[in-house]
Design goal:
Strands 1, 2, 3, 4, 5, 6 and 7 form a seven-stranded antiparallel β-sheet that branches. The protein has helices at about 1-25, 100-105, 140-150, 150-160, 190, 195-200, 205-245, 250-269, and strands at about 40, 45-50, 65-70, 80, 90-95, 115-120, 170-180. The chain folds into two domains: about 1-185, Chitinase A, domain 3; about 205-269. The protein is of the alpha+beta class and about 270 residues long. It contains eight helices and seven strands. α1 packs across α4 (about 150-160).
Length: about 270
């Protein structure tokens, strides 16, 4: 029974592997050219269908905008995302920030705007959870994707037949069309602080601060004179009331006190 099960599992895995090879054949649009795939140390395979001519090449921190057509190898090349055919918005992501599956993050490096690249992403570099892009926008497509690439029973069976990390269920093929590549966003600190080179050229002598200091002193003196002019009538009224034995209502005393404090604060600015 054990031998029969092993043979069945291996036969099924080998059939899936043959299906995977068929999925990677050039489409009608690329049939005239023979794609030359490069295999990286991580196991990612990529080939340029069209080389871009943009000024910037994708690198860590690059802000990228791209269309994607993703196929499930374990589902005979079923398309689980196509932002072009669905008239959907392209993906806008940042390389190296952990928002993408590892295979896409690595596969985008070196691309330029206007280029199209095919990525064949092995399971270890593909979808390990439901939070990494490119994620289908349709609920139905999400379910189809995740029930295939995250199917633990199928992954285990294929791993037994082909070896760990060689399963077909988790393999995806993605064609990426790069629309735009922008440099990394500048941090808030770099936008606010004076660059060191520029700061070194500034004149930090006392003359730089003499004019603002004099202006501030003059403004403060003017405020003090204004406060004194407003306070004098109030104090005169209070003193006159005391001399004549007139007891002011409590709210008049409170008003005078409040005005005095407010004007003192105003004068100190």
């Amino acid at each position: 029974m054990r031998v029969t099960l092993d043979l069945t599992t291996r036969r099924r895995a080998l059939q899936l592997a043959a299906t995977a090879a068929a999925v990677f054949r050039p489409s009608a649009s690329t049939a005239a050219q023979k794609l030359e795939f490069t295999t990286t140390d991580s196991g990612l395979r990529w080939a340029d269908i069209k080389v871009g001519n943009g000024d910037l090449a994708v690198d860590t921190g690059s802000r990228v905008t791209f269309h994607a057509i993703g196929r499930l190898v374990g589902k005979q090349g079923w398309i689980y995302v196509n932002t072009q055919a669905d008239d959907d918005d392209p993906y806008r992501l940042v390389c190296g920030d952990g928002s993408m599956i590892a295979g896409v993050d690595e596969g985008l490096r070196g691309m330029r705007a206007g280029g199209t690249r095919r990525l064949v992403i092995p399971s270890p570099l593909g979808y390990q959870d439901r939070s990494h892009e490119p994620i289908p926008r349709s609920f139905g497509q999400k379910q189809r994707l995740y029930t295939t690439v995250l199917n633990e029973n199928r992954l285990r069976q294929e791993a037994e037949g082909l070896g760990a990390g060689n399963d077909v269920a988790g393999v995806v093929a993605i064609d990426v069309e790069m629309i735009n590549v922008r440099p990394p966003a500048r941090s808030v600190a770099s936008r606010v602080l004076v660059p060191a080179a520029a700061a070194a050229e500034l004149d930090w002598s006392d003359a730089v601060f003499s004019a603002p200091t004099a202006a501030a002193t003059a403004a403060k003196a003017q405020n003090t004179q204004l406060a004194s002019a407003l306070l004098l009538p109030l104090f005169a009224y209070k003193v006159g009331a005391l001399i004549n034995g007139v007891k002011l209502q409590w709210y008049l005393d409170a008003t005078i006190a409040f005005a005095a404090v407010s004007l003192v604060v105003f004068a100190s600015k």
